[in-house]
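@channel sequence for tomorrow's demo:
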Amino acid sequence: QVVESGGGSVQSGESLRLSCTAIGLNLVYYSIGWFRQAPGKEREAVACFSNSGGPTYYIDSVKGRFTISRDNAQNTVDLQMNSLQPEDTAVYYCASRYLLCTDDVDRYVYWGQGAQVNVSS
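structure tokens (generated this afternoon):
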């Protein structure tokens, strides 16, 4: 399973860090993706850190502002979010799947409970 931590309420331009702890999963074999779902919208893939050790970003507007990283010792995958904007407001989820990253939400098996991120202007 995976468990998120972090989130909260910030103003535009500020930063937040989300952490996803993988429990019982060997990240050598599992990729961890970060997703978000804004009110009234579908869940979308934000970024993924693959089992082979590489990051992928799926939303052009977060490139250069968000950074996904993995800590092998802690078995965590973090999402550092800088220069947050109101349009980043959403519930953020991490999820895992065996082997490679994909932006297909339906291909992820284990999901966290979600972390609310609110960005005010």
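heads up for whoever presents: The chain has a mean pLDDT of 96.
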